[in-house]
Amino acid sequence: MMKRFRTLMLSLAATSLTAVAFAGSITVRSGDTLSSIANRAGVSVSTLRDLNNISGDKIRIGQTLQTSGRSNNSSSVSSRYERPLWPLMGTITQRYSYRGPKRGHAGIDLAAPTGTPVYAALSGTVTFSGWNPFGFGQLVKIRGIDGREYYYGHNSRRLVRVGQRVRQGQMISRVGSTGNSSGPHLHFEVHSGNRIINPFGILPSSRLRQASSR
Ligand SMILES: [Zn+2]
Q: For residues 159 and 146, what is the distance between their CA atoms, to the nearest angstrom?
């Protein structure tokens, strides 16, 4: 009897809340979005994506989403205290459209005058700083404290060395047009495990949240 009552309560709650939360997971109901679920679970959309290996915004009704615990990919556990910020406030000239190797654009392009400072989106350790022969030109790669690897391409100058620890907002390079580039811009790319993810999914919605503003 008690059990039946609880089940009834649960289904009533389901209609009003549109999602049932239990023990670190949520079942997607009609009308849910990734951000509404993230809100309800008290986690960021990027954490939700990481925990469930979702790269876009597609979820389906009936799908169970993990809302806590470690991601399958232990290297992409996000820091609770620091989130990526915009590496510079340039004009977005190309968005992410990656669909696999050599298909689509694997990052975002932020156009800015040559010499504009580029700031570390997140604290981390420099894993590469040098010439990339495959189009990135003068490239800086930083392994963020969230386990993701951040690529900053086409620089005119690099200001950090491999192995160096950088903090969020530290100037790491200056905008340029080196490599396969038609004009001065930053190519910003984010690797999470073996996936190349959409930077829009992890950057703040306000473009004013520049890393250097910290
Ligand atoms: Zn690009």
A: 22
Give the model confidence (pLDDT) of 94-133 as tens digits. 999 999 988 999 999 999 999 999 999 999 999 999 999 9
Structure tokens at 158: 């690099």
For 91-213, which CATH superfamily applies? Glucose Permease (Domain IIA) (2.70.70.10)
Residue 203 has pLDDT above 90, yes or no: yes
Report how far ligand 1's centroid is from the alpha carbon of 171 (Å).
Answer: 20
pLDDT higher at 167 or 36 = 167
3 CA distance to ligand 1 centroid (A)? Answer: 56
Domain extents in the chain: 2-72, 91-213
Q: Which pLDDT value is given to residue 69?
A: 59
| Ligand 1 centre distance from Cα of residue 25 (Å) | 36
The pTM score is 0.63
Residue count of the chain, please give it.
214
157 phi and psi, to 5 degrees? Answer: -140, 145
HSE-CB of 51 using CA atoms within 13 angstroms? 21
Q: Report the CATH architecture of 2-72.
A: Roll (3.10)
Centre of ligand 1 to C-alpha 47, Å, is 25
Neighbours of 171 (CB within 10 A): 15
